[in-house]
């Protein structure tokens, strides 16, 4: 399964907004390589919290 199939772009942007780093993943030349390991780990934490709220 590809990375994009695990977390859709809306969830990625939601998680980025929650952390205040959405500007780092937007734009033609921006990508997730601009984030720290901690910020990427927080994406998982936010996604799990959101999934638990929806269930």
Question: Brief description of this entry?
Answer:
This is Small acid-soluble spore protein F (Minor alpha/beta-type SASP). With 55 residues, the protein is mainly α.
DSSP strand content: under 5%
Instruction: Bin the helical content.
Output: 55-70%
Radius of gyration: 11 Å
Count every beta strand, where a strand is a DSSP E run of 2 or more residues: 0
Which H/E pattern describes the elements?
Answer: HHHH
Number of contiguous helices: 4
Q: Structural class given helices, strands, pairing? A: mainly alpha
**N-C termini distance:** 23 Å
**What number is the mean pLDDT?**
80
Protein name: Small acid-soluble spore protein F (Minor alpha/beta-type SASP)
Organism: Desulforamulus aeronauticus DSM 10349
Topology:
Layout: H1 3-6, H2 9-19, H3 22-25, H4 37-54
Helix pairs in contact: 2-4
Summarize this structure as a short list of keywords or feature phrases.
Small acid-soluble spore protein F (Minor alpha/beta-type SASP), globular, single chain, 4 helices
Structure write-up:
This is Small acid-soluble spore protein F (Minor alpha/beta-type SASP). It comes from Desulforamulus aeronauticus DSM 10349. The chain has one domain. The mean pLDDT is 80. With 55 residues, the protein is an all-alpha fold. The chain is built from four helices and no strands. It is globular. Helix content is 67%, strand content 0%.
